[in-house]
Amino acid sequence: MVDNGRNSSSARRARQRAIRAEMARTGDPYNVVARRHDEREEPRREAKQAARKMPIARCPRCRQAEVHIDEQPSCPGCGAVWESGAELAGEYAEEILGLNSYTWVKDGGEEPTAECPDCGEQAVVSIQPGDTTFWTMMCMSCESLFNDRCTRCSAPQHREDGDLIICTTCWNDVVSRS
Ligand SMILES: [Zn+2]
Ligand SMILES: [Zn+2]
Ligand SMILES: [Zn+2]
Prior knowledge:
Layout: H1 5-26, H2 30-40, H3 42-52, H4 85-95, H5 101-107, E1 114-115, E2 122-126, E3 137-139, E4 145-146, E5 148-149, E6 156-157, H6 168-177
Antiparallel strand pairs: 1-2, 2-3, 3-4, 5-6
Helix pairs in contact: 1-2
This protein binds zinc ion (3 copies).
């Protein structure tokens, strides 16, 4: 089946709606609910991932194994465990991408980690260039994938063909000013 842009972005919105509703019902945080939701939807998700080739987030310590994203992410290869997705993202940015907040503040360039528009964690990193597929950024906390940034505030975005590259926050801001 051809996965056209319209279908996948409406599927994503449906997922967000389902997750928000479950969060309201259960009071659980986003990443917990999202994982539970995706485990239920696993067969569908796997088909979609296969179609788009998931990027590989390699362990920043052993640089071999693929990290397992969880509430406390871990590496099945070297046994490293991180306290949070944000902590792993910071280490990934520093070790794999050679970016850290100190040089970013001082010299500019690419922000080491970005805030995830889906889960709110400062855990989005660029994927190692050699492992890049359709997606170029990944959240180390909720595994959301991104392939572009908002042209106004540079928040990570999911771009589908024909979409305007501006995030919801900026869009609402623009609308409220006009
Ligand atoms: Zn490792
Ligand atoms: Zn996230
Ligand atoms: Zn924006």
